C-alpha cells in the first residue's frame, strides 16, 4: 500500500446530502486514520448508507468534501476509487459469471498481478468456505455466498480503505468470525475499515472508533472507549438516539468530541 500523502485514509468534512427537499445528512465530519476499524451506527434512515455511497463515489455529494488518502473523491474520482473497496448491503453481482470470473474481473479492473490475485483467492476463499463454489455461476449462489464473494473481491486488490454497509447481515457465524479477523488483518497492515452496523455488540468489540448518527447528524464520535464511557455501547446508543443527544454524550456527559470534527 503506497501512500501518496500522510493524509488520513478517510476525511469527511462538512458533508451534506439531500434528496429533493429532504436533507438526509448535514454538516457531517469525521476522520479515519490508518489502522482504524471505524463503526458507524444509527437508526433506520439515519443517513449511514447515504454517507457510505458518497464515500465510495456511487452518488454525488451536495456540500462539504470527502477525501480518501488526500484525494478528493469529487475532483479525482478514479484515483480515489482505486484506493477503496466497497461491500454494499445488497451484494448485487453479475449472475451470468462464475465466482472465479467475477474475482478475475475485479482483479483485472484493479490491475492486480496474477500471482497476487491467486494468492489472495487461495487465502480468502477457503476461510469463507467458498472455494468449491467458485466454479459455479453466481446465479446459483445464496445471499450469504454472494456476500462472501463480494468480500473476497474487495480484499483482492488490498484496498487502503474498505467500506462495508451492514457486512454481518446474512453471514453464518464462521464467516462472520473470519470477516472480523480479515478486517483486523487489513487494519494491522495499515489499511482502514469503515462500516455501518446495527449489531452493537460487534461494533463494540471490533471497532477502536465509533460514530453515532441521528437524523443525518453525528451525535457522538470518538474512540469506542470514549463514546461508551462506563456504559455499554447499546446503552449509550439508546440514550442518544431516544433523547436527541446532539451536543451531549452518553448519560449527560459532555460529547466525546466536537460535532464539527470527529476523529
Ligand atoms: N434515493 C433516495 N431518494 C430519496 N430519499 C432517500 C434516498 N435514499 C435515502 N433516502 C432518505 O435519506 C434518509 C437516509 O437514508 P439512508 O439509507 O442513508 O439511511 P440508513 O441509515 O442507511 O438506514 P438503514 O439503517 O435503514 O439502512 C432516509 O430518510 C431515506 O428515506
UniProtKB/TrEMBL annotation:
Residue ranges constituting the ABC transporter domain according to the UniProt record: 10-240
SUPFAM superfamilies per record: P-loop containing nucleoside triphosphate hydrolases
Membrane-crossing residue ranges in chain numbering: none
Keyword line: ATP-binding, Nucleotide-binding, Transport
InterPro entries on file: AAA+_ATPase, ABC_transporter-like_ATP-bd, ABC_transporter-like_CS, ABC_Transporter_VariousFunc, P-loop_NTPase
GO molecular function: ATP binding; ATP hydrolysis activity
Region of interest (Disordered), residue spans: 244-263
Entry keyword Chloroplast: no
Protein name: ABC transporter
Organism: [Collinsella] massiliensis
Classification lineage: Bacteria, Bacillati, Actinomycetota, Coriobacteriia, Coriobacteriales
Amino acid at each position: 500500500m503506497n501512500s501518496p500523502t500522510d493524509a488520513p485514509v478517510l476525511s469527511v468534512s462538512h458533508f451534506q446530502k439531500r434528496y429533493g427537499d429532504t436533507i438526509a445528512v448535514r454538516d457531517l465530519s469525521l476522520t479515519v486514520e490508518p489502522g482504524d476499524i471505524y463503526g458507524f451506527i444509527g437508526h433506520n434512515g439515519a443517513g449511514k448508507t447515504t454517507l457510505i455511497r458518497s464515500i465510495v463515489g456511487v452518488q454525488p455529494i451536495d456540500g462539504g468534501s470527502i477525501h480518501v488518502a488526500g484525494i478528493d473523491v469529487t475532483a479525482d474520482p478514479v484515483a480515489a476509487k482505486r484506493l477503496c473497496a466497497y461491500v454494499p448491503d445488497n451484494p448485487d453481482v453479475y449472475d451470468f459469471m462464475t465466482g472465479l470470473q467475477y474475482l478475475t474481473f475485479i482483479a483485472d479492473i484493479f490491475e492486480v498481478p496474477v500471482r497476487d490475485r491467486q494468492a489472495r483467492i487461495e487465502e480468502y476463499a477457503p476461510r469463507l468456505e467458498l472455494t468449491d463454489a467458485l466454479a459455479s455461476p453466481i446465479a446459483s449462489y445464496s445471499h450469504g455466498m454472494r456476500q462472501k464473494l463480494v468480500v473476497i473481491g474487495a480484499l483482492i486488490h488490498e484496498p487502503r480503505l474498505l467500506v462495508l454497509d451492514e457486512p454481518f447481515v446474512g453471514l453464518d457465524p464462521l464467516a462472520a468470525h473470519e470477516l472480523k479477523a480479515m478486517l483486523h488483518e487489513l487494519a494491522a497492515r495499515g489499511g482502514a475499515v469503515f462500516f455501518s452496523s446495527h449489531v452493537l455488540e460487534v461494533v463494540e468489540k471490533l471497532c477502536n472508533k465509533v460514530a453515532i448518527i441521528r437524523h443525518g447528524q453525528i451525535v457522538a464520535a470518538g474512540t469506542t472507549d470514549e463514546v461508551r464511557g462506563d456504559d455499554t455501547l447499546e446503552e449509550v446508543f439508546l440514550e442518544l438516539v431516544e433523547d436527541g443527544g446532539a451536543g451531549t454524550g452518553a448519560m449527560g456527559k459532555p460529547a466525546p468530541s466536537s460535532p464539527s470534527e470527529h476523529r
